[in-house]
Amino acid sequence: MYPLKFHPVFQERIWGGRNLVVVLGRPVPASLRSRNVGESWELADLPPGSVGSDSAGAASDGSLSSTIGNGPLQGQPLRRVLSEQGEEIFGPAQAPTTGYFPLLIKFLDARRDLSVQVHPDAAYVKSHPAAHLKSEAWYVLAAEPGAKIYKGVKPGVDAASFKAALADGSVANLLQSIAVKPGDCHYLASGTVHALGAGVLVAEVQTPSDTTFRVFDWNRLGSDGTPRKLHVAEALEVINFGAPAAALPPPAATADKHWQNTPLVHCEYFTLQRRSLASGVQPLPTGRALVWIVLAGQALLQGDNQPITAIAPGETVLLPAKLNNPRVNVVSPLVILEAALPH
Q1: How many other CB atoms sit within 10 Å of the CB of residue 49?
Q2: How far apart are alpha carbons 157 and 16 in whole angstroms?
Q3: Is residue 214 flagged as an active site residue?
Q4: Is 98 among the domain residues?
Q5: What is the reported pTM?
Q6: Exposed site from 3, 272, 296, 318, fewest CB < 10 Å?
Q7: Are the CB atoms for 291 and 284 separated by under 8 Å?
Q8: Can you give the chain as a three-state secondary structure string?
Q9: Residue 97 has what pLDDT?
């Protein structure tokens, strides 16, 4: 086994822009470069029934699995590799009971405000098997001056006042508005009503789900000239009208003579930290699956009897648990986001 890179799946969205190419250098096909591309699904392994009808790349059963883009396994779907070599990727202790990879990695480019939305919580999913829980973290990669996100409702807002504001179009006034800048990170637990604001580019780490309940879409029309579908009744069942649920406090920042580590999110589904390495050749951690999202710099991932994997900004790579003497050779100062399953 060796570090795995993937072919991204690009999603056209009414709110999307051009920054997946301009800022991140992602390989958006020429046929889409004049379109509003809002999402790049960098690593996905979604089971049947998980992918919405408005998302590209899904199989007829509503599943979607990333295609490996490097090395001997190039061209194979991640789903097949996990079914045949799952222990090499997860290690003996971390394989999920579902068999599917338990994280979905995306980039989101918001040229316009995203819809005000919420994702189902565990209680809703338990009674609605077709729904899938979705908790997520946003790491801000770029933000225009004055850019913001919406995260949770203001104190005192209840279901009745929220429903009334939806009816008269004033719901944005009831949401917590937060100014953002590059380097900020926000955890959005399922049940947190939210929206990514215009002019923000983020990396998103989430549980593998495409279930979204849209409650307000800024009175705009979809690509077909009609208003996009809303899911108000479903949303009111799951919105947390208290303070947004917080992730567990992450550990303090750490450093050794090589790595600088800044923990960002520590929740029951994943951990996320920003790591930087200035130079040299250093061993890679083994024993658990890790996902690296490259923010800056270039490096070569090497190991005994495995192909060399070059990584650069904008790329996502899955580091399997079982690698043979793995190491990272830094070409230029490296900064990554590292997502992992909790111990």
Answers
A1: 15
A2: 30
A3: yes
A4: yes
A5: 0.94
A6: 296
A7: no
A8: CCCEEEECEEEEEEEEECHHHHCCCCCCCHHHCCCCEEEEEEECEECCCCCCCCCCCCCCCCCEECEECCCCCCCCEHHHHHHHHHHHHHCCCCCCCCCCCCCEEEEEEECCCCCEEECCCHHHHHHCCCCCCCCEEEEEEEECCCCEEEEEECCCCCHHHHHHHHHHCCHHHHEEEEECCCCCEEEECCCCCEEECCCEEEEEEECCCCCCEEEECCCCECCCCCECCCCHHHHHHHCCCCCCCCCECCCCCEECCCEEEEEEEECCCCEEEEEEECCCEEECCCCCCEEEEEEEEEEEEECCCCCCEEECCCCEEEECCCCCCCEEEEEEEEEEEEEECCC
A9: 67
20 and 161 in a single domain? The answer is yes
Structure tokens at 305: 């009897």
Is residue 202 located within the same domain as residue 290?
Answer: no
Residues 6+ apart with CB under 8 A from 256: none
Residue 246 inside a domain? The answer is: no
- Residues 299 and 311 sit within 8 Å (Cβ to Cβ): yes
Percent of the chain with pLDDT over 90: 76
* Residue 74 one-letter amino acid: Q
Structural domain of 177 = 4-238
Number of domains the chain contains? 2
CATH number at residue 169: 2.60.120.10
Averaged pLDDT, 232-260: 81
Query: Is beta strand 136-143 parallel, antiparallel or unpaired with respect to 185-188?
Result: antiparallel
Say yes or no: 163 and 210 in one domain.
Answer: yes
249 located within any domain: no
- Active-site residue identified among 33, 214, 220, 288: 214
Maximal CA-CA distance, the chain:
64
Lowest mean pLDDT among 14-18, 33-37, 127-131: 127-131
If asked whether residues 197 and 282 sit together in one domain, one would say no
